[in-house]
Design goal:
258 residues, globular, mainly beta, outer membrane lipoprotein receptor (LolB), chain A
């Protein structure tokens, strides 16, 4: 299995570290907006390709596993996921453009394409605990304002804790709580809240460095109300080759991918 680095973004943090991490951290501690910028920079990847295995566990304990190939480009503004297993979903695709503001789902069995915009993006993606909205990349600085709640250690990793409230054009959640590593600026945990309170929790783990980039190889979303969970494990990833622009078009959804 090829090892990986982080979500789609480039980060010039070597220079920051040389100049003095302590000074930068002190500044960021006083300003939630600065932390959002640090997260965006740490997660920015120009393009990527790879394979993901997704396991959905229902509240009753039954499981189903799906495998997909994925491609992203333009620092995450464009992404495509194509399911390769099991057979009943092989060939189904999810296309996202404009940082997830526009989403299309193509069902191969019926040769049907659905367009998700606005509140429709809150729907569960393939019956998982991730919504279509969750799968979009977006920019923290554009999608949220942030309030510092303090420091906390998660799994021996010092983190800063942020309360992030969506902007007018941001996600549909009432707010989220994010734990961010103070040394690499990468999220370790996210609690999602709607108008009724705590809805679900995303945990990111198994951080590895691939081709010079650090990222979480494992993500698990737990729906605290339903008792279901979805785990996504990165089987492989590469940042070397830029995908063909034609992949990220609605017209290409019904075509076979070579």
């Amino acid at each position: 299995m090829e090892k990986i680095n982080h979500k789609g973004r480039t980060f010039p943090w070597a220079l920051l570290l040389v100049m003095g991490l302590a000074a930068g951290f002190a500044f960021a501690q006083e300003d939630g907006a600065s932390w959002l910028k640090l997260i965006d920079e740490a997660e920015r990847i120009p393009h990527a390709t790879g394979i993901i295995e997704q396991t959905i566990t229902t509240s009753g304990g039954s499981e189903r596993t799906l495998t997909m190939r994925f491609w992203s480009a333009e620092e995450g503004e464009l992404s495509l996921m194509a399911y390769t297993a099991p057979a009943r979903v092989k060939g189904d695709k999810i296309l996202q453009r404009d940082d997830g503001d526009n989403i299309w789902y193509y069902m191969k069995r019926r040769d049907v394409t659905r367009h998700f915009v606005g509140t429709a993006r809150r729907q569960s993606a393939m019956g998982s605990d991730f919504s279509y909205e969750d799968l979009g990349s977006g920019d923290m600085t554009e999608d949220y304002t942030a309030e510092l709640l303090g420091d906390e250690t998660l799994d021996d990793v010092p983190c800063v804790k942020l309360k992030c409230t969506p902007t007018e054009s941001g996600p549909s959640y009432e707010h989220i709580i994010v734990w961010v590593g103070v040394e690499d600026y990468l999220p370790r945990k996210i609690d999602y809240y709607d108008d009724d309170g705590h809805l679900k929790t995303l945990t990111l783990s198994d951080f590895q460095t691939i081709e010079g980039r650090k990222l979480a190889m494992r993500m698990e979303m737990v729906n605290v109300r339903e008792g279901s969970r979805t785990q996504m494990v990165q089987q492989s990833i590469s940042f070397k080759d830029e995908p063909e622009p034609s992949l990220f078009t609605k017209e290409a959804l019904s075509r076979e991918i070579r």
